[in-house]
Amino acid sequence: MHRMNQQFSARRAYLRLLMGAGLIVGAAACSSGPTSMISPSGAGPSALDARGGAVKAFTVTVTPPSFAAGNATLVVTVTNDLSTNPATLKLGSVQMVVPSGLNVLAVNTFSGSKSWGTAWTTGQTITVGASNGTQKLAPGESVTFQIDVTATVCQVYAFDKPAGSSETLGTFSADWTYIGSTFGVAVTGCGAGEGCPAAPAIAGAYLRDVLGMKPNDDPYKNIVAQVANHMTQEARFDDLLPCETGYAQAVINFVNAIVSQL
């Protein structure tokens, strides 16, 4: 009997030892807790690019903002945006549509960081770009070229947003984002009977078609009202009659001064 009691005591001690070891293992597992949870990729959310890649951004400017009816030369500057694009993103070509009424006569006189040319022969759609890969624009680089146009109707002509491509001239495929403002040019100085709009009409067209304001917006209505109040007898604006050279430009300058203070 005594021997049986000894065997029972030994087994009970052994069971206690096993239970103690199990508690230790369980405690160790619990202590690891949430720190053992990792994302399948092993990368935190901050390592993920929400945009899905770099933005390919470019800008275009056109000058002058106005010219007298007849023949004129528009100077266009295309720039690969330095603030947005990494050095590996190079702009290969750009396509723009000149508004109907500004009839394109020629596209020429290229200059700038790289050697660019054009595929334009006729019509209002102009494509310009690098002749080969080494002439693509790196971030911060620009090219300038000229568009010879003619116009007979005095009004503001707004351009659609240009399109950009990584491809060189001849293989254009739009994959870039234009990040500049809407832009346009005003044709002024038309003779009597050919259309000489008064200052409020010029201001409204400029605000709507070039600056992108909506007619129902308060800034639009307030600016047009200020332009109307600035006119004097015979629709004079800064002492210029509607059909005189410089009239539309005076209105645009007046509007730009107001917009700059908004």
Task: Give your account of this protein's structure.
By secondary structure, this protein is α+β, with helices and mostly antiparallel strands. It has 2 domains: 52-188, Immunoglobulin-like, CATH 2.60.40.680; 190-262, no CATH class. It is built from 4 helices and 12 strands. It has helices spanning 2-32, 199-210, 218-230, 247-259, and strands at residues 57-63, 66-68, 70-80, 93-97, 103-112, 116-118, 125-130, 142-151, 156-158, 163-165, 174-178, 184-188. A 9-stranded mixed β-sheet has the order 5-8-3-1-11-10-4-7-6, with no helix packed on it. A hairpin with an 8-residue loop joins strand 10 (163-165) and strand 11 (174-178). Helix 2 packs antiparallel against helix 3 (218-230) and helix 2 packs across helix 4. The longest helix has 31 residues, at 2-32. It is globular and about 60 Å long. The model is unreliable at 1-52 (pLDDT under 50).
Class per helix and strand makeup: alpha+beta
In order across it, which strands form the biggest sheet?
Answer: 5-8-3-1-11-10-4-7-6
Number of helices: 4
The biggest sheet, with number of strands, parallel, antiparallel or mixed sense and barrel status, is: 9 strands, mixed
- CATH class of the largest domain reads Mainly Beta
Q: What's the helix and strand layout?
A:
Blueprint: H1 2-32, E1 57-63, E2 66-68, E3 70-80, E4 93-97, E5 103-112, E6 116-118, E7 125-130, E8 142-151, E9 156-158, E10 163-165, E11 174-178, E12 184-188, H2 199-210, H3 218-230, H4 247-259
Parallel strand pairs: 1-11, 2-12
Antiparallel strand pairs: 1-3, 3-8, 4-7, 4-10, 5-8, 6-7, 9-12, 10-11
Helix pairs in contact: 2-3, 2-4
